[in-house]
Structure to design on (270 residues):
């Protein structure tokens, strides 16, 4: 999965723009566009391919994310109709052209340059590639440390391409030490706010509901709001919401050197 979410904080207060690799501010001085736009700043960002994404809705943003994809193009070959990273970047270019037609090239470039871009990709390169089946092609090609180094080198290319497309503020999540951070830092915090189960997934089968995908035939928990994990791979909706709030407003003992709200506030006054 690759998700990019961007805030153009100087374009409109708390305006959300999702752009990238893409499907998710402190109040600055609002531009004329912010003053005249009828779109609510709390309106959810639409998928880029949504037929409803046109006109003023482009000012809210666009979500280019696709489940199942990874850093590598051969990740997710078992799925159909997924949108790989290179195609997501093409859509990002198209989005910028449409935005430029709406507000002018200079303003569109400013929006992209000042947006915060969130990209989440890399987990599927293990789950749906390296460990997909015993003796997978990639596991036979690379020892695990070499595979990690290969992914990092390919990820660098993706980030450089994102820079070439105008992104200047990029928040990278979902790979590397994040998993260790989740289990050793976030899980205890989740228990403190009402979660009671971090071992058994809400939907699945087998031990800990950790085998296979969530289907109509799967075991289903009684209250998804107390489970940290929805299925074998994904946090539950409530857990994800808590993680986002921690990224935005967490204290220095859980997110350092500062949370995202502080970064945005400092940037607005720079």
């Amino acid at each position: 999965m690759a998700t990019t979410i961007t805030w153009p904080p100087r374009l409109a207060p708390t305006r959300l723009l999702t752009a990238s690799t893409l499907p998710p501010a402190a109040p600055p001085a609002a531009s004329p566009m912010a003053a005249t736009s009828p779109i609510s700043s709390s309106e959810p960002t639409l998928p880029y391919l949504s037929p409803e994404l046109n006109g003023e809705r482009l000012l809210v943003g666009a979500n280019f994310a696709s489940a199942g994809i990874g850093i590598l193009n051969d990740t997710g070959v078992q799925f159909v109709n997924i949108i790989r990273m290179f195609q997501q970047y093409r859509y990002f270019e198209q989005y910028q052209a449409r935005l430029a037609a709406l507000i002018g090239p200079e303003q569109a470039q400013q929006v992209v340059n000042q947006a915060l871009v969130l990209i989440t990709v890399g987990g599927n390169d293990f789950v749906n590639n390296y460990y997909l089946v015993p003796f997978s092609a990639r596991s036979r090609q690379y020892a695990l440390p070499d595979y990690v180094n290969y992914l990092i080198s390919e990820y660098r290319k993706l980030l450089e391409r994102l820079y070439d497309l105008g992104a200047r503020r990029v928040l990278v999540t979902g790979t590397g030490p994040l998993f260790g951070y989740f289990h050793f830092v976030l899980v205890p915090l989740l228990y403190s706010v009402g979660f009671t189960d971090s071992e058994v997934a809400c939907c699945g089968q087998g031990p800990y509901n950790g085998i296979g995908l969530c289907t109509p035939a799967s075991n289903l928990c009684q209250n998804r709001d107390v489970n940290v994990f929805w299925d074998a791979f994904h946090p539950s909706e409530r857990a994800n919401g808590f993680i986002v709030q921690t990224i935005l407003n967490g204290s220095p003992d859980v997110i350092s050197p500062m949370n995202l709200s502080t970064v945005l506030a400092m940037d607005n006054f720079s």
In short: The two ends are 33 Å apart (CA to CA). Confidence is low (pLDDT under 50) at residues 1-41.
